[in-house]
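Bug #77: duplicate submission created two jobs. Keeping one. Sequence:
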Amino acid sequence: MLLRIVDLLIVNAFGLIVYTLLLRFYLQLLRAPFRNPVGQFVTALTNWIVLPARRVIPGLMGIDLSTIILAWVLQALMLTLLLWLHSLTLISAPGVATAGLLFGFAAAWLLRASLYLLIGAVILHVLFSWFNPHTPITPVLNALTRPFYGIFQRFIPPIGSVDLSPIFVLIGAQALLFVIGDLVGPF
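Kept job's structure:
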């Protein structure tokens, strides 16, 4: 029972930081406005780790590499702690191969977390567009979802002023989650 509690604490503590770092990365990448409650929350929650990392890891062509690399390293650290906690090893390979495998799994988990963020943003965007389209979070959700909607809106026109592209984005994200699940396996 104690093992499961520690497991829960590790996953939730690291998950909060990793998801927030990913959200910050995507907000910056997609040029979402930060002058809203979500942007201020994400900035306040991640500045303590991102600002020192920016001194060491420079950006590249407007992309904040420090944020995504921090998320990747923290995800790998979480996986390492979980493996250590459950007394498991990846393989009996040299340290470089084990580290490469661990960081590969961490990258797959980050991709999975990114897809879950997209699914959450699409669902929130649809709900807010129905019930409260003028909420302060709407510009953030627009910035996070519009690039993905645009892929499907080119081929599927609105039907009776109802945009069906969120449905196809959700189906595509779920299909990618199945592929990632098959690649990573039970890990």
